[in-house]
Design a protein that fits this description.
The complex is a heterodimer of chains A (273) and B (289). Chain A is α+β, with helices and mostly antiparallel strands and 273 residues long. Chain A is 28% helix and 15% strand. Chain B is globular, with a radius of gyration of 19 Å. Classes of the chains: A alpha+beta (273), B mainly alpha (289).
Chain lengths: 273, 289
Amino acid sequence: MDTKRRKFLTDSTAMACGAGFFALGLHFYSRSLHALPPNTLRPPGALPEEDFLGACIRCGLCVRDCPFDTLKLAQLGTAVATGTPYFIAREVACEMCEDIPCVVACPTGALDHSLNNIDDARMGLAVLIDQETCLNFLGLRCDVCYRVCPAIDEAITLEIEHNKRSGMHARFLPTVHSDHCTGCGKCEKSCVLEEAAIKVLPVPLAKGSLGKHYRLGWEEKQKAGHSLVNPDTPHQYYLPKGVQYDHAGKGLIKEKTPFSDNPLDTLNKEFTP
Amino acid sequence: MNTLIGAEAITKKGWLKSHRWLLLRRITQISILLLFLLGNFNIFILKGNLSSSVFLDTLPMTDPYLFLQILLTQHYPETQAFLGVLFILICYLIIGGRSYCAWVCPMNIITDSAYWLRYRLNIKNRFTFSRQNRYWLLLITFISSLLTGSLLWELINPVSVLHRGIIFGMGMGWLLILGIFLLDLLIAKRAWCGHLCPVGAFYSLLGKRTKVFTVSAQQRDACNDCMECFVICPEPQVITPALKGAKNNISPNIHSEHCTHCGRCIDICSESVFNFQLNSKNNNKGSSL
């Protein structure tokens, strides 16, 4: 009896220890997967990464229903959690199907079924990350990212700016607007450079966020219909007499002109030694 | 090297009859895999994988074990997953036991091969451990889902890694499967399916009450104590009460939740002691263990 009990105790202890170590190892492995590699995007409607890893059943139905073979299932040993769907924009971008078949296929709602307009998808956020190599920033008219954007003129606009290098041309700067960018990756996919200058990043990586208590004065003023600061005095410079402020960037200028009231003084000026 | 197991049955019943259930199982396992694989050629009869799938674009099927883990991460799945689980649960109420292990799970082919090779090479068991360990692992998978909010076990679950890998690409998964094969071959007999696999443990709990189909030692009086069924059975402990219980008036039906309904004992027995039994009140003799 005693040996039986002893064996039971040693066996259970060994097993509990083994199981504990196993769980610990698994836990550390999973920690290394919690942050998705920055070039990896989840399908449209994917829950935030932490929730997604608990909700995705890893069945691949989204992969099967993707008509463009964009989505892949992560394999063991890669940096993406085993069996979860992803795509790499630089390889294949999301075609933004209007009926969003991948979301419809998801049995668990890891891809949120409340997403019914693909324009509301936020798979990532495009960032023109390298202004030193972007051809448009160099003053050329590449415009490819702007042209391929499914939300052209909303998600990416071209902002015109004086080309200081040539001094006589304009630069058309591709500018991403986060309130329209779905993160489909078309811009990154089609960037003509060896390494894309515009990249789709996970939203938390790409986007800053204001402190929750921050209020933008001008917006608050518009909402309230009047200034919230009392009294609302118009801005005014207190400058020394005879000096004025020039808005064009020249700074303080003296009001006093080099010309006297008598035009003859000016005409004779050339002759004074 | 050991002689081929079941030699007597082969001479007595013929090769085909002594491999009938094995062949049926292999055909079933491979057909299920092929049906999933057809998806790679855009033929969608079975779409998805064993975790969750859709049959002919209408009937959803969802693995209740994974479903439970998802619930534990505090995510509430869509209706499709609920319907899928319901369907599989109904299947289990009808079929029961660990039929999944023997008839569907692709790991079964791997571990059966490992066991076959182990037997042929006469590799001695170096390490024994309790078959209850699978319940510990099962518990860990549930606790880890609850604590981390993520399906931790699915990162390395060999069952889904293998099945998903065959269909969608394996990556480094081969190493894991090879590891299981070597574990079964060199370290411990029937280590994975018989001692560790939490998926099988879960299905054993799920199919515990269902006894519609059972393997039964109806002709146990004919047993000549050749012990081949004990050698071939992946869970040999389930045979003893049914085969040797006549004295104690124990039912000849194998009622253990660990019987995988693989039917190898039926194949291997030269005396035709075993058969599959459709249980009804009439032939459910005696009490179950």
